[in-house]
Specification:
Structural class: mainly alpha
Shape: elongated
Radius of gyration: 11 Å
Number of strands: 0
Number of helices: 1
Order of helices and strands: H
Largest sheet: none
Distance between the termini: 31 Å
Helix content: 55-70%
Length: 29
């Protein structure tokens, strides 16, 4: 996989995790 694909997947996972339950990381807002 290209770096762009990995980066996109990581970003999407982080967004989902924060949206579903942002208990692991602080809210971006």
């Amino acid at each position: 996989m290209s770096m762009e694909g990995l980066n996109a997947s990581l970003v999407s996972r982080a967004d989902l995790a924060e949206r579903v339950g942002g208990y692991d990381r602080k809210p971006r807002r």
